[in-house]
Amino acid sequence: MTIFSPILASTAGHAVAPNVTYLFLGLLACMILCLALEEKIHAKKSVIVGIFSILALFLGAWFHLLPFGDVGSLVIGGHKISMPVYIPGVDWEVIAIILGSSLFVDVTSKSGLFTWVAVKLTKLSKGDPLRLLILYGVMTVVFSAVLNNVTAMIIVGSLTGVSLKKLDRSEKLLGFLLIEGLLTNIGGLLTLISSVPNIIVGKTAGIEFVDFFIKAAPYVVIATVITLWLGSKLFKISSLKSDEERASAKALVAGFDENEGIESPGFFRFGAIMTFVFIGTVAMTSQLPVINELGLGFVALAFAGIMLIRYKAVADRFYKAIDWDLLFFFVCLFAVINVMEHAQVLALIGEWLKPILALGDKTGPACLLVASAAASSVTDNIPLAAMLAKILGGMPDIAANPDSPYWWAVIFGSNLGGNITPIGSASTLVSVTIIHKYGLKLSFAGFVKIALPYALIQLALGVVYLIVVS
Amino acid sequence: MSTVDQFESVFKAAAKTHYVHEKHPLGKVLLVTDMDSAEAALYLQTVKTFLENVLPESETDWLLVSQNDFENVKDLLDKVEEHRPDLVITYRNLKSDAWRWPYSLGEHLDVLTQVTSTPVLVLPHPDREDSTDFLARPPETVMAVSGHLCGEGKLVGYSAAFTPSGGKLILSHVEDEATHDRYLAAIEKIPEIDSEVARETILSRLLKDAKDFSESAQTVLGEADLGIEVECHAKVGRRLEDYRKLIEEDHVDLLVMHAKEDDQMAMHGMAHPLAVELRSVPLLLL
Questions:
Q1: Closest partner residue to A157 among B4, B16, B212, by Cβ?
Q2: Do A159 and B7 touch (CB under 8 A)?
Q3: B194: phi > 0 → left, psi -120 to 50 → alpha, else beta; which?
Q4: Does domain B4-285 have CATH number 3.40.50.720?
């Protein structure tokens, strides 16, 4: 098979001098470095990528790389439309999915549904630490899959802090939060909309929601069981021994009131029904007439809009709460990657990937998985996923095959890489933030030291799984 | 995106403090008087009759300390230490006529309530003209007094123990309006805190915690089958004034409150003015 097409679709129209390509490559490297040092330079992602998008667009225009003529005279449905050159490069479907689903989750969380589930599971544990770890672990994975991994970590992490304090088991907090942080990235693998890399890669590859779930679920189950087992051993989280301890713990968790967060029982029921319908619609999008043409972004925005009717008078409060940093980050990132594509930087990186891809259908994806994980462990996994998706999408053999193991190598690698370092993914960063909020000391190196055994096992399992199923 | 703090708030609110009923021993009672032996013996009978519903003769070992048994505060403390009772019963301003003025409990009680861990039941002074009226009938309505009712299991437990079957227990919680207003005035000067949200939510949250705890006590005491009616009064107001009103409106026969505070030697902040000024109602000081 032809592993790599030397010319990317969008680059056929013009040639770029190598020194210009290297200049833009340097710019991309600087941006990735700045993103890796986000905490050190005290700058938000959107500002970092925004500055680089301004630079990239300016230099792109300076070197006559950008297709001003094309976007200046677009004809869509017989209508001539003019738009700025940086607009078509943005994947608005991805932006719509992220905006819609985060708004939907935010409004639905006001119904008290997620806190109800969380408190119910806490009571189900009867205060037994091991049972609590298992239930919180499963909840983290499911919430990461259904909501998104950052929201899942926020919900489960904040509950963990409160419940362990109530159970007088604060000494186990570090272990719980760390394991939950690691599980968010495993849960983030479960569905097409669980994490941003999944959305970007899945959409580029054309992977259907149900196919994604069927392929990812067995790995997620195995990795979750192993992570919980290892976590309970390494952090010495075991069951309560005596009847007295069990009775006392049961009485303490019985004090939790799952109905506390429910403002209106009617809205609670509506939120529960809408969550199931939302998941069902997302899963069935490609099969539903009309909806399949409007796409996942429409589904997410439509459900957010329906939920907002409950808060129609104060909808602006939810708009204020939207993570604009994340959304502007994506818009600017897509603009940067689009310029990089025109500057032949992606083609150049694709050339460098050639030796890996030439290793064959078993070793090649395995190496790409490990390389993606290593790269996304030190910088944001989203630019990596966006860039690799664009590169793989430019290779006809891979682009035409949604089942290609290379897509899955990027999906597994960019998600699991987040478990190697605390900056590898947004959800692990949230878990570390909660750890620090409770006054527990955990340095960058400390995190790596604790998390590395888990990450290595998960990666090894991912490689084996990819080889077996491909 | 909802922040960690927002979800943490929901979970903290969900982690409610429930009342756990514990029986407090009241089998050994020490009556301290400054009367001579004969008068003291008569007074003991009056007190026994007053408390017969909650301290039945058959289950209670009564001890008596009278005028000649103690000279000063140290002697009294030694007597309490010697007998180690479950309850001390006495009245204000022992060996003094300062009971006529509503300014103190007297040196003996001031020290006794702070030094001993034993609850002290303070009765109206026997020399009051209307003192016999107060002890004429057993207490039927008992009020637990607290500015922080949530988690006050001991207070509720003792209050329930002194409420006879068929009687009424009022769990009262008055948030001090002046303190609340002062905090709100400070919040109004802090740009980072939404004053409107603070005004709407802080008070209701404070009262809700008290109400939730009361409801839990209501359920648990109901399950314990004590035959008592439990009511909750949670409100904002001026503490002393509001307690006076509640006592009058509900015809309260006994007030129960904490007298000790962990971080100070003097009597609990709210207990002192109440104990000093509400002289016509028996008080159980924990």
A1: B4
A2: yes
A3: beta
A4: no
